[in-house]
Amino acid sequence: MRTNLMKTCYFTLAGQRLGAAAVIVQALAIAVVIWAVPLPGQARRDVSSSHEPCGSRLTVPYGAEFWRNAPSGAAPDLVGAIQRVRHAFRPDAASGRFAVEAAAYRAVAGPHGLEFTAKAPSLSDDVPPARALLRTRSIRMGTNWIYRASEQRGLAWSATGNTAEVVLDSAMRLTEHLFAGPDGVEMTWILPRPIAPTGAWQVEVEVRGLEHAGSSGPGHHFADARGVARVRWGTATAVDARGTRWPVPAVHEDGCLRMTVEESILRAAQYPLALDPLVGAEFGMDTPVPAPGVGAEWQPAVASDGANYLVVWTFQRDATTTNDIYAARIGSTGALLDPFGIAIATATNAQANPAVAFANGTFLVVWENGSGNQSDIHGARLSAGGVLLNTNPIVISAATGSQTKPAVAASGGTFLVVWEDTRNVGQDIFGARVSAGGEVLDGAGLALASHFSPQGEPAVG
Fold first, then answer.
1. What number is the average pLDDT over the span 228-232?
2. 3-class SS at 79?
3. How far is CA 120 from CA 221, 231, 278, 300, in A?
4. Residue 372: left (phi > 0), alpha (psi -120 to 50), or beta?
5. Residue 29 pLDDT > 90, yes or no?
6. Helix, strand or coil for residue 119?
7. How far is CA 319 from CA 48, 86, 296, 341, in A?
8. Using CA atoms in the order 342, 344, 346, 349, what is the torsion angle rounded to 10 degrees?
9. How many CA atoms lie within 13 A of 308 on its CB side?
């Protein structure tokens, strides 16, 4: 692979078409522009989706789930942040309830509990989905009941991002919490403080719709009418505010799973205390559901405004949709600031290969926008507060041929966007400046590298 390098202070490039590029790069004081001949046969994947805000304030603040938080000082989890956006609860159009659609399951926070539907394997069209309703039937401390479902009306859930929550007892703030992810939904009960009189803490969960098929090391299994295990109730763990963990056994009896946290654990724990099993889909006991590669997220890029990060990525909800560009801000502590993500580009065309930079209080996100065999370079600005400033994309280049694989950097209040370009006979590197106000300053593009051999893989910094 041949690599060419252009430096801001001074560089020499053959050909009259490259002179303007040298002036622009020098004026911007951007450190380096790099490109290389592309590897043959590189594959591209494409994707699409939408997330709508659907929640209100939770008893457990979003991102403060103490029973699953990373240790203090850990690096921000970019993959985890993207997965939280991917598995956000959204209002269900048919029922108004909160629902999340994952590759292997669909979950709904409904008035009677968690409605969990295990999807059929991708190659088994004759196998229907398997639906189970999991409802907290009762909670007691020692011999005293502190919650009984028979005394309650429909549950009133709140949701933010991939979490949903209902307060089972407002006086003691006894809370049931759902956390959706790629492996299933964590059902968590949170005891905020010790409750007198003392005794074991017992939670009973009623399971309807599927038959109990037995248990194994990883948990209890529930089967469909064919006798195939489709839903697994994972092993439960009690976790206190310090992160101390205790395994909690679950037994199945009379259509219920009963978990018992012994009094010795309650005495040793630092409150609040959480009880946290995972409900997941399977196809056969302890066999994950074979699902197609859908709901994929890839091609992440990140920039910082000095206080927070903006992560952008390509997203595809399923095999029938094209790809979109999404973003989310992550705080300096690793907290996800945009639980539902920010939809940057959701047009019917295929969007891919995003890049991002920050200048003068504004992020600029750029991507390739594909239609048929041709792609253009589009962009959009976001404020540091995560507000999308261009609901209609900025067309940075729509020249003949294709413009692909953009990269972007900034100096002062101006951005420089570079990309691969096939408007001429071969594959060249072109670029254009974009102001902080979103104006494209070089509408025809600047030829940065033009040669009889193909130029590719541009980068700028």
1. 95
2. helix
3. 16, 11, 19, 30
4. left
5. no
6. coil
7. 9, 15, 10, 21
8. -150
9. 19
Q: What is the pLDDT of residues 254-278, one digit of tens each?
A: 999 999 999 999 999 999 999 999 9
CA distances from 402 to 35, 98, 373, 384, 450 (A): 17, 41, 8, 31, 15
Compute the distance between CA of residue 145 and CA of residue 272 in angstroms, rounded to an integer: 19
Strand 3-7: give its sheet, edge to edge: 3-7, 32-36, 459-460
Q: What are phi and psi of 324, to 5 degrees?
A: -115, 170
According to DSSP, the residues that pair with 236 across neighbouring strands are 248
Q: Report how far residue 396's alpha carbon sits from residue 442's, in angstroms, rounded to the nearest whole number.
A: 9
Classify residue 215 by its DSSP letter. Answer: E
> What's the rounded Cα separation, in Å, for the pair 326 and 48?
9
In contact, 97 and 110? CB cutoff 8 Å: yes
DSSP state letter for 388 = B
8-state DSSP, 197: S
Residue 5 binned pLDDT confidence (cut-offs 50, 70, 90): very low
Whole-angstrom Cα Rg for the chain: 26
- C-alpha distances in angstroms, 124 versus 106, 137, 289, 381, 414? 17, 34, 11, 44, 53
Is the confidence at residue 292, as pLDDT, over 80?
Answer: no
CA distance 143 to 326: 50
* Six-digit token string for 226: 């064919």
Give residue 232's pLDDT: 97
Q: For 152-210, what is each residue's pLDDT tens digit?
A: 578 889 999 999 999 998 888 899 999 999 999 999 999 999 987 679 999 999 999 99
The Cα angle at residue 179 between residues 176 and 181, in degrees rounded to 5 = 160
The SS3 assignment for 96 reads coil
Q: List all residues 6 or more positions away from 200 whose beta carbon is below 8 Å from its beta carbon.
A: 141, 142, 260, 261, 262, 263, 266
Phi/psi of residue 427, nearest 5 degrees = -105, 120
pLDDT digits (tens, 9 = 90+) for 132-142: 999 999 999 99
Strands 184-191 and 174-181: antiparallel
